Structures are given as C-alpha cells and as structure tokens.
Amino acid sequence: MKQDKRKLILTAAEQCFAKYGYKKTTMEDISHIVGLSKAAMYYYFNNKGEIYITIVTDAYRTLVRELREEIEKDLSCDKKIIKYFQKRLEWLYKQSYILTQITQDELIAFNNFGGGIVEEIGMEERKILMKVLQKCINDSIFRKFDVEKVSNYLFILVDGIYNFYQPSTSMEIMTQERNEVIKNDISTALQLFIRGMKPD
C-alpha cells in the first residue's frame, strides 16, 4: 500500500515538474493530484528534493536495465557502443528540463542524499560497457587493451562533447536541435575512436 502511494506521488511529481518546472512545483501541487493532504505527503517523502532524487535514481536504474537489454541484441561491436551512448544521451536530454532548474544548494543536498546511490548505479552502467568491450576483444573484433581504461576514455570523450554543447547559462534549457547536433558529433567521434581499437 505504501509503495503504491509512493509510485502515485512520483508519477504526479513528474507531471508537475514537466508542467510547472521544478522550482514552481510545490508539495501542495503534487498532493492535489494524488489526493493526499500536504501533511500526509511527508509520511512518504521529506521534501520535494527527495522526490526529485527518487525520480532521477529510478530513471537511472531503468536506463541501466535498458542498456543491458540493448547490448544483448545482435548488433556489431561498433553499433553496440554507439547505441549505448545514444541511449545515455536520450536519458540525459529527458532529465535536462529538471536539471537546469535545480539550485546549487539542492545539488549539494542531492549529492549528500543520493550521491552514493547514483555512484553505485553508475558502476553498474560502466560494467555493461566494459562487458561489450571485453566481448569484442574475445571475438577478435578489437585488439587487446585495458578494458577499464578504454571504457573511461570513452566516457571522457562523450562527456567532453556533451559538456562543450551545454547551454551558456544554467537556466537555459537544452533544445532538441542542440541535442541532435550533440548526438551526431558524438557518433562521429565514437566511430573514429572505435577505428583505433581495431587490429591494424
């Protein structure tokens, strides 16, 4: 019963964040949709920030599950790696409408409350990429290299391009057009990088 109510609150909060933005959304807005009093809301979540953190971590877990399913598909090594990062970019784009509205204090609170959880999920995510790289080496598609290091290089490459295109102000929302440019540039950069991992 408690879990069902939590799910209803999270769904209602996502609707509110999408409609009003994170800053303008209040606990009252969320409670109104769910049909709970504001006081009853605090039985499930301490504040709006905690609701947001839960939404993000749940979405991140879903992303990791989808990435795992994606690499099981019968794709070439090149396509698996590119698809892996495209899926991550789609997820980041979906989260960007809230992330631009979070204050520095709220980000610090997020790190204190959810940082460990996010780090743990992040490790799961990276293991998926390392598994792809290792299989490509085992199948002689790629030459031998340190899988963990190369995995880190790939994340640095992709994150570097992504951050280069970030809006100039924290309040500016990422547009679909800019997101498409990022996806194309990352795809091109990954293809060049992947070429270097193949035997001569």
Structure overview:
Pfam families: TetR_N. The protein has about 200 residues and is an all-alpha fold. The chain has 2 domains: about 45 residues, Arc Repressor Mutant, subunit A; about 150 residues, Orthogonal Bundle (Tetracycline Repressor, domain 2), CATH 1.10.357.10. About 75% of the residues lie in helices and about 0% in strands. The protein is elongated, with a radius of gyration of 19 Å.
Q: Roughly what percent helix?
A: over 70%
Beta-strand content estimate = under 5%
CATH topology of the largest domain: Tetracycline Repressor, domain 2
Helix-strand string: HHHHHHHH
Q: Compute the number of structural domains.
A: 2
> What distance lies between the first and last C-alpha atoms, to the nearest angstrom?
60 Å
CATH architecture of the largest domain: Orthogonal Bundle
CATH class of the largest domain: Mainly Alpha
| Secondary structural class | mainly alpha
Rounded average pLDDT: 85
**How many strand segments?**
0
Which homologous superfamily in CATH is the superfamily of the largest domain?
Tetracycline Repressor, domain 2
Per-chain topology:
Layout: H1 2-20, H2 27-34, H3 38-41, H4 48-71, H5 77-99, H6 104-138, H7 147-164, H8 176-197
Helix pairs in contact: 1-2, 1-4, 4-5, 4-6, 5-6, 5-8, 6-7, 7-8
Protein name: HTH tetR-type domain-containing protein
InterPro entries: DNA-bd_HTH_TetR-type_CS, Homeodomain-like_sf, HTH-type_Tx_Regulator, HTH_TetR, Tet_transcr_reg_TetR-rel_C_sf
Keywords: DNA-binding
